[in-house]
Amino acid sequence: MAIKVIAQRREVKLGKKPGMKFVMRPDLYIPIQEKKVFSEAATHSGISAGVIKAAWDAAGEVIKTWATEGHSVPLPGLGTMRFGVRSKAVEDLEDVKTNLISVRRIIFTPNVDVKDELKNTSIQITCLDEEGNVLKRVTSGDSGDVEDPDASPNPSEGGGSNPTPSTNNGDEPGEGD
Q1: Are 21 and 128 in contact (CB under 8 A)?
Q2: What is the CB neighbour count within 10 angstroms for residue 19?
Q3: Burial code of 22-35, b = ≥16 C-beta within 10 A, e = fewer?
Q4: Low-confidence ranges of the chain (pLDDT < 50)
Q5: Which of 70, 118, 137, 138 has the greatest CB tally within 10 Å of its CB?
Q6: 0.85 exceeded by the pTM?
């Protein structure tokens, strides 16, 4: 298996060097229906799809409750998730108000097995011109590095989050992703 990516040539008007550039985006897959996920899990586990769905629904309710209480919640076999916010920073206590929050976020941190699976999955890039004609195909030879959402943010690369849910999660203006 491989992750499919499209690199299409288009005009980029923003940035230090505007002009015609190849811009990458995931090649969108057809969404898998929830019913198929439960059916496949039933096949792999020997547990009926109905029981798996009931357990998944119950786990989902528990995850939502704990995450909205400020917990980082384990998703067994996948990683952890938590909620956070993106907000503006202010110097004065009097200026701290809820309107500083620009967006609420869901932060997922994959476990080592998921990261390893991603690291070891090749990436196939299809290069297209402006009209969508295939120019070439490339298969990855990169190091397979996987971003860590809990790592210290690097403003030049964007992103990062502080694991403490009650803070602004390290998403000060200028560090955005």
Answers
A1: no
A2: 8
A3: eeeeeeeeeeeeee
A4: 154-177
A5: 118
A6: no
